[in-house]
Design goal:
The chain has about 325 residues and is of the alpha/beta class. The chain is built from 13 helices and twelve strands. It has a six-stranded mixed beta sheet with strand order 2-1-3-4-5-12. A six-stranded parallel beta sheet has the order 7-6-8-9-10-11, with helices on both faces.
Amino acid sequence: MKPTILILNDFSAPHRESLAQCFTVLGRDDIAGPAAEEGLYRIRAVVTDSGAGLSRDLLARLPALEIVTCSSAGYESVDVDALSKRGIAMTNASEALLDDVADTAMLLLLASWRSLVAAHRHVESGDWGRLGEFPLQRSLRGKRLGIVGMGRIGQHLIGRARAFGLEPAYFNRTERPEVGVPFQPDLTDLAAWADILLVIVAGGEGTRGMIDERVIRALGPTGTLVNVSRGSVVDEPALIAALRDGGLGAAALDVFRNEPHPDPALTSLPNVTLLPHMGSATVETRSAMAQIVLDNLDAHFGGGTLRSVVVEPPNRRQHARFS
């Protein structure tokens, strides 16, 4: 008998078909209503992402659950502590999106620093011909980049930053001497030192509002804030206020507090560069993210090695694929 898995997110059709060859696949509609309760007892794996999550209520109704596989890097909408206490494994897809997210961070950084959006409008509107040259911009070379978060993406950013002549330093919960970059244990001090502050940390309650008014104001009227992590990490009202009154020079954002409907008070500002949460949004990376889900389910039920582990069960049990 095939193991039963539950897919909560919009998993791609080709990869869903691949799962159906080895597993009994259920979706949200299959677990709706009281008649579906029996099916919940058969579910041994859940596929989800940061948007779909996995609620505490649903988790409590899955007594046979063994593994949760996220097809995203983020997992803040999954109760990791509850999984750990029950000995349920959890994986994400972080290893697949390192390059694309790091590239997107540099794209935003460069576009904001050199006023790409305003320069585009200067040409598009005809102002170049009517008003003359676009105002001179500042060179990136020799500027200071503060990286908030030194996980795998943060480490990927170091080489890219140095290639553009930036001087990097970082803030992290713990020091990482192996990365070969100066560590600053105080986030506000890092912001005061930096010309550009680039945020790449996990979402969730532990990082909510960590880029607060003090940090934003410390970055200063010539500073630029780049956020490719989660909108919840930045105090958005404080960010809007600082951008309006000149307390912060510019912001470049791929994420927002209220997606996909960001605050018009933010999006209407002239000193912002915005992307629609597309850091990992390439065909190649999204396919690789889905493939990690398939690989992890195959490894879990076949007794293999999991990839991108977030929660490792107390003992790596051996599972027959069709047990």
